[in-house]
Backbone:
C-alpha cells in the first residue's frame, strides 16, 4: 500500500504557531558573514544561551571566539566543530548531536561546503553520472543529478526541522563593478542550490558590511530593510518581535481539538500530526474538566467522540468522562510534577494489553502477513505459537500484546525463506527452555576401589554364594547359584548341606523330580552343553532346560567359562 493511500487528507483549523529563526546570510568572501552570524546567534540565544558552530572554513570561526582571561578583547562564547568531509551523513549526524546536547542556536559556516566541498553534492553528482554513463543507463544530459536531488531535499528538511534557531552562511561567486575611479566587489549567485534560498524564510545579502534583506520571511520589520551598522543585532531584534507571536505546537493542537466545528476527518488528521511530532505525552488542560491530561489521550477521546456511528452502537461517552484528570489550577505554566502524574494516571487507565482482546487493525495486518508468507489457515496456530513461544488456548482469539508482537515480527520477514529461518531459531529457543526446565540427571553409580560395580540388567538375579556373578535371568523366591558354585558343592544360605551322594545331586532315597511347567529349570554344566563335545552332537535338548550361551570367546580356539 502506498503512502498516498494511507494519508488522511483532512484539513485542520489554522493557528499561528511560534517559530524558530531560519536565516541565510549570503555574500562574497570578506563580506563579514561569520561575525554577523555570531552576533545574530548571540542575540537570539541570550546571554546564557548555548551556541553550536559547524565550521567548514578550516577553523575560520575561531578568530571570533573569546580569549580566556581577557574579556576586554571581546569575542563570542560558543561551541565549535570542524568538519573535513561534507556528506549527507555528516550533516545529519551533526544536527542530531546538536539537538541531543540542547543547543539553542546552530550556525553552519558555511553551507556552501556541502555543495562544492569534499563529498559535496557536485562530487556525488559527478560520480553517479559517470557510473550511469558507463552502464549506458543515462536518461538525461546530467544523469547524476537525478540521484542528488533526493539527497538535497533530505538535507534541507533536516536543517529546517532542527528544534532551535538555525543560521547558515552561503558564499557567492565574486564579481567586480567599476564606478568611476572606484571598484566595487559584489557577490553573484550563491554557491549552493537555488532550493536553499527558496526554503529559508529569511535571506540577507551582505556586501562590505552592509546587510540588505532580500527575503523577509513574513517579518514586517525586515521588509526592504537595510542595516549599515551592526546588522546581526538589528536583524535579531526584528526577529524577536515577530517570531514569538503565536502559540506553541502543543497549545496550537489543543486549541484545534477544542474547536466546536471540528470534524471526524480533521480529528484524524490532528491525531496523525500529534504522532508525527512525538507529542502524545505532552500535558494539556482538558476542555471539559480543566485538568491536565496527555495530548494523545485528548486527541483519541475527541476522535472517538466524532467517529460516525452506525447501527445500534452505543453513543459516545461525554467529553471528559473516563479520562483521569488533575484538578484545575490557576492559569500559568504547567508544573513538571503535575504533568508526570497526569501521564502516569492516563497510562493506568488504559486497558491491560495482556488481557484485552486484539484490535481489528492488528488482526487485519496479521492476516495480510500470513497471506504474504503463504501461511495456511491450518498451520496458522502452530506458526503463531512457535513465534510467540506460548500456548494459544483461545485460538483464533488473541490478546493485544500477542497481536502486537506478531505484527512486529512478521513485518520484518520479507519472504518465506526468512520465515523458515526464524521458525528454526524459535525451535532452538524452545529446546533450550525445555532443557533448562528439565530435572537434573541421576548421578553416576559410585566407584568401589579401582573398579566400578557392574550394572545389573533388568530382571537379573545374583548368585547366592558368589555375589560377583550375575545370573542373566529373573530371580526366584528361593536363592539360586551359578553352575560353578553348584559343582563345587557350596551350600546355599538358609539351607542344610546335602549329605551323601555326589555334590549337587539329590538326597538319598529321593527320586529325581521332573521340572513342572512354569517351575524352576535346571542349569546344565557348560561342559555338557550340546555342541561342546563329540559325544553330545546327537543329544536332544530338553525344551525345559534353559541354556546360557555365555559371552563371546576372546579369540579363536579359546573360550572363557560361561555362567548360568
Residues:
Amino acid at each position: 500500500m502506498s503512502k498516498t493511500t494511507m494519508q488522511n487528507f483532512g484539513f485542520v483549523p489554522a493557528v499561528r504557531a511560534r517559530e524558530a529563526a531560519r536565516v541565510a546570510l549570503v555574500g562574497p568572501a570578506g563580506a563579514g558573514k561569520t561575525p554577523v552570524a555570531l552576533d545574530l546567534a548571540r542575540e537570539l540565544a541570550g546571554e546564557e544561551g548555548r551556541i553550536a558552530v559547524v565550521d567548514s572554513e578550516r577553523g575560520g570561526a575561531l578568530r571570533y571566539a573569546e580569549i580566556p582571561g581577557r574579556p576586554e578583547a571581546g569575542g563570542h562564547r560558543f561551541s565549535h566543530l570542524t568538519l573535513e568531509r561534507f556528506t549527507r551523513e555528516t550533516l545529519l549526524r551533526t544536527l542530531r548531536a546538536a539537538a541531543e546536547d540542547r543547543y539553542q542556536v546552530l550556525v553552519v559556516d558555511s553551507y556552501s561546503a556541502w555543495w562544492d566541498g569534499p563529498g559535496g553534492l557536485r562530487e556525488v553528482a559527478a560520480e553517479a553520472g559517470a557510473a550511469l554513463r558507463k552502464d549506458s543507463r543515462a536518461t538525461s544530459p546530467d544523469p547524476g543529478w537525478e540521484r542528488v536531488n533526493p539527497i538535497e531535499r533530505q538535507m534541507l528538511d533536516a536543517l529546517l526541522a532542527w528544534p532551535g534557531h538555525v543560521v547558515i552562511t552561503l558564499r557567492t561567486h565574486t564579481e567586480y563593478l567599476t564606478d568611476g575611479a572606484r571598484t566595487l566587489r559584489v557577490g553573484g549567485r550563491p554557491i549552493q542550490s537555488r532550493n536553499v534560498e527558496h526554503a529559508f524564510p529569511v535571506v540577507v545579502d551582505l556586501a562590505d558590511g552592509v546587510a540588505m534583506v532580500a527575503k523577509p520571511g513574513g517579518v514586517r520589520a525586515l521588509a526592504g530593510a537595510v542595516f549599515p551598522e551592526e546588522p546581526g543585532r538589528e536583524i535579531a531584534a526584528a526577529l524577536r518581535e515577530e517570531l514569538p507571536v503565536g502559540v506553541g505546537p502543543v497549545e496550537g493542537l489543543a486549541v484545534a481539538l477544542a474547536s466546536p466545528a471540528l470534524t471526524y476527518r480533521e480529528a484524524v488528521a490532528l491525531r496523525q500530526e500529534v504522532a508525527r511530532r512525538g507529542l502524545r505525552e505532552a500535558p494539556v488542560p482538558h476542555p471539559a474538566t480543566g485538568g491536565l491530561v496527555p495530548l494523545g489521550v485528548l486527541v483519541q477521546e475527541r476522535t472517538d467522540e466524532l467517529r460516525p456511528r452506525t447501527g445500534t452502537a452505543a453513543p459516545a461517552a461525554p467529553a471528559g468522562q473516563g479520562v483521569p484528570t488533575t484538578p484545575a489550577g490557576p492559569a500559568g505554566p504547567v508544573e513538571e510534577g503535575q504533568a508526570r502524574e497526569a501521564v502516569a494516571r492516563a497510562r493506568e487507565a488504559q486497558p491491560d494489553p495482556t488481557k484485552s482482546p486484539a484490535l481489528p487493525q492488528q488482526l487485519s495486518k496479521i492476516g495480510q502477513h500470513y497471506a504474504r508468507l503463504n501461511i495456511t489457515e491450518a498451520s496458522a496456530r502452530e506458526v503463531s505459537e512457535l513465534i510467540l513461544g506460548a500456548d494459544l488456548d483461545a485460538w483464533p482469539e488473541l490478546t493485544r500484546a500477542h497481536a502486537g508482537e506478531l505484527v512486529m515480527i512478521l513485518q520484518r520477514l520479507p519472504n518465506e525463506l526468512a520465515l523458515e529461518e526464524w521458525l528454526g531459531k524459535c525451535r532452538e529457543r524452545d529446546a533450550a527452555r525445555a532443557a533448562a526446565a528439565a530435572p537434573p540427571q541421576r548421578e553416576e553409580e559410585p566407584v568401589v576401589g579401582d573398579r566400578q560395580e557392574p550394572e545389573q540388567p533388568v530382571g537379573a538375579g545374583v548368585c547366592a554364594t558368589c555375589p560377583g556373578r550375575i545370573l542373566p535371568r529373573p530371580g526366584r523366591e528361593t536363592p539360586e547359584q551359578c553352575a560353578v558354585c553348584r559343582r563345587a558343592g557350596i551350600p546355599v544360605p538358609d539351607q542344610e548341606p546335602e549329605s551323601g551322594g555326589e555334590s549337587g545331586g539329590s538326597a538319598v532315597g529321593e527320586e529325581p523330580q521332573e521340572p513342572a511347567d512354569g517351575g524352576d529349570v535346571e542349569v546344565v554344566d557348560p561342559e555338557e552343553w550340546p555342541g561342546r563335545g563329540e559325544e553330545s552332537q546327537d543329544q536332544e535338548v530338553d525344551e525345559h532346560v534353559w541354556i546360557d550361551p555365555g559371552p563371546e570367546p576372546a579369540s579363536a580356539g579359546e573360550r572363557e567359562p560361561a555362567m548360568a
Residues 360-434 form one domain.
